[in-house]
Write a structure and sequence with these properties.
rod-shaped; 107 residues; mainly alpha
Amino acid sequence: EEEEEEEEEKEGEEEKEEEEKEEEEEEEEEEKEGEEEKEEEKEEEEEEEEEEEEEEKEGEEEEEEEEEEEEEEEEEKEGEEEKEEEGEEEKEEEEEEEEAVSHLVAQ
């Protein structure tokens, strides 16, 4: 009877140890999975940040291009206005010369 009791006790302890071992393994597995998830989340965040930076950079480049285009248009417009002014000045000078000539002719 004592032997049986000892045997049962021994089996009980072995079962207990087995269960504890299994629990430990499960906890380790869960911990490992948790860390992997954290790692994945971190990677995703980094990717998102990179994308945002890329988009920002593209936005800035577009802005710069637009500004350059506007400047070019402005310069073109100014150039045309200058040409017009020069044309008007030439026209006025010609008229003045004609007046002077016709004045001389009249005299």
